[in-house]
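Notes from hallway chat w/ T.B., transcribed later so I don't forget. T.B. wanted the structure written out for a chain they're using in a teaching module, and asked if we could keep both sequence and structure tokens in one place. Agreed to drop them here.
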Amino acid sequence: MTTIEQIAAAVLYDDSLATRSLVQEFLRSKPVLADIPAPVTDDRNLLVVVAALLELFSLRTQQPAPEWTQQVGPVEEPLYLLRSATHMRRLRDLCRDAAPEPLRRRHLYAPPDYLAFA
């Protein structure tokens, strides 16, 4: 079974194909998002991405997010979740200005439809 930590790791490794596949598998299992515990990790970026993804999936599936995600702040350095945003100014601006709220408030930037297929 796919875990939210595996999805976050794929996001951080910029593996968009694996990310899409893992997200589809994860959501097909119809997880109760509010019951997912915080990951046990020393990797701050992983924790932030997990929290942001859970809140994003919560919005899109109309479920409550786990309460612990509210305590997770932003990454230290802004992180663009699409590699091409680093060298395409318009895409970078779109990601920064229109990223889904759970991502944007944690300084994670992606297009407004990021993982919307899920």
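Follow-up for T.B.: The first strand starts at residue 79 and ends at 80. Might be a good example for the class.
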